Amino acid sequence: MRYGYWLPVFGGWLRNVAEENMPPTWDYVSRLARRSEQIGFDLTLIAELNLNDIKGVEAPSLDAWSTAAALAAVTERLELMVAVRPTFHQPALLAKQAANIDHISNGRLALNVVSAWWHEEATKYGLHFDKHDDRYARTSEWLDIVDSVWKQDHFSYSGKYYRVEDNLLQPKPQARSVSAAAHVNGRPTIYAGGESEAAKNMIARQCDAYVMHGDPPERIAAKISDMRARRAAMRLPELKFGVAGYAIVRDTEREAQQELRRITDVQQSAAGYANYQQWLANTQLEQRVSLEDYSVSNRGLRSGLVGTAEQVEERIDAFTRAGVDLLLLQFSPQYEEMERFSEAVIRPTKLPARRASSGANREAAYA
Hints:
By secondary structure, the protein is of the alpha/beta class. It has helices at 26-38, 64-74, 91-104, 119-124, 132-151, 197-206, 217-233, 253-263, 273-281, 291-295, 309-322, 334-350, 352-366; strands spanning 2-6, 43-46, 79-84, 109-113, 155-158, 163-167, 183-184, 187-188, 190-192, 209-212, 240-246, 248-249, 306-307, 326-330. The longest helix has 20 residues, at 132-151.
């Protein structure tokens, strides 16, 4: 299992808690990213929204791509999965920017391609907002161009949404990556998520990894089986699979449940609720969502990563058996809770000798 986390570009993840002590500032996220790679995290996902989805549209949020470029220069090992929405970026220009950041990071850039869902944001930034399936048709063309200009020069393309003529792009992304997971097929890894048929077919055909909202391991296993079948029918290499999750690790289950109750004290008048309703209206989900899902983004609580270290480890083992390669985690407050999660879960997992030694010490203590 690889451990990733969402960079808190919105100043938090909880719609019912106004102040989470994780400001959307360069000082905070750069300190967080540098520390995260020291304590065992493999990847950070940098979301791209020009308005604040969590705390309300009047609240500040960080730009994804300038933040990613800066993080590339101050981190050493962390894979940088940067969200990108084709509606907001011309493909050849984004491919150029991404290739440059890939070199700054020494081959640690990956893309999370998101077919935009927020109509109000597009309007406020002067962009056309496509209908659902049209967004995926646009994304498909966009991916064709990005992939091609990364791999060849003198490339031309004429489609419904985009046109390029005799494109030249140098330097190309690094052919080999410092992080084996960051590059596949000679390009930065392309992650994408979606639950509609249009989304799943596009991802199976054109992407390298499928990322999912939070759900129990048994539901995730069924989704992975479905995507593997789609991919196999196209005779393409296997996808990688990631799942979102909100993690609460405490010494006792009672303490974990107390924290869960605190963050799910739903207030429907919270500033982000209208944005959430827009997201529901403009996406096609496989199941209904609850007000508890509203409390934490990306259905993170459905992953069930709440409890003692042993309970959370058992849940992670279940995700591994389901076929998951990557957990994309959220915490609040991020810095402190990531430290707690690393100490309780990541470091014992990555250092089995330490776990065995600790186990021996515990047995001796109870002898």
